[in-house]
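ok so i was messing around last nite and threw this chain in just to see what happens. nothing serious, just curious
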Amino acid sequence: MATFKATVFKDRQREDKTWNVVIRFTHERKVRYISTTMYVTKKDLTASFKIKNQQIIDRCDELIKVYRKKVEGLFLEVNEMDIDTIVDLLKSSKENKADIDFISFCRKWVVKSGLKGSKNYMSAINSFCTFFGRETVLCSEVTVKTMKEYEEYLSDKPRAQSLYTSAIVRLFNEAREYYNDEDNDIIRIKQTLSKYHPAQQNVAEKRALTVEDIRRIFFLPYSGTRQNGKQCRHDLALDCFRLSFCLMGMNSADLYNATEFDGEYISYYRTKTKDRRNDNAKMVIKVHPIIQPLIEKYRGKERVFNFHERYSSMADLNRSINIGLKEVGKELGIDGLQFYAARHSMATIAINQVRIDKWTVNEMLCHTDPSMRVTDLYIQKDFNPINEANYKLMKYVFGD
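result:
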């Protein structure tokens, strides 16, 4: 009688600290092992090296069912075959070539697309592979049920639960767009994820600060220390936070890249969304007197600010700011203080305390309302309302 069992060899640990799951096949008292595409880590195993990860166990059971069905298809002939011949038949049986390797498509698509958030997409893909326990996932396996299970798998990581599931849905839709041709009735990926909605995280609740906290940050004294003859990260972080809050939540990429300043207005094209908008996400911000000294302090030669002269990339600038803000947060007793808190706080205070309407705050954040996209094509952009709102916000927070 032919039997199958999922097995892990303790002495066959790979360099990446994982073990390959193999299927032990026994026939007429002879044993052979068939490797799989599944890998486990120490946390997936018991002390006696038995698999305890239920997802891996379930997938092994599915694979064993397939093997059993193939052996059963041999009928009585199996008694006349040696074990190696049977193993060869199991290994050589071809999968449905109509199905598509989802992971392979995803990795190629991310590289080819050149997305600014490619690192997040790659992290999502790697996480999805870990969830499945293997590097190959077919498009037919990406279903609404699977996505809900994956969301539950990420339940202890709220940010990833929202970010990664959204990324997988985007990649799956890209795969459907690439492989399906409805006009010619070619449908290689039949199912959709239209009934699955990725988890949403209320990031504002975590990041928005109170008016009092904003004031404490603005009036916190510099440490005055120097690092390699330059201003320390603590003081740099204070200044960049202040600039961002007073410049309608301007992020570090735009502080780094902005090139236009006429002495009164800073004009720039928001790095994050300029390639996705017809207006190139243009922003024109009137500099408030409260940050005029900071504008002069960091005035650059070729760009508005000199951050590009000190840092080789905007990622390096952002990293230094957040390291400095950890020191600031510790000093002020603000847990998990991050640079994006300036942007979230600006929007939250503007709406909840200053009572600026949500539409204007949406414009201050340089977000796009889908319902207004067509209308925007007919209207010349007027930046006066958002600058008036910003001055009203500054007066509320800092007084006259």
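not much to say yet. Residues 102-201 form one domain.
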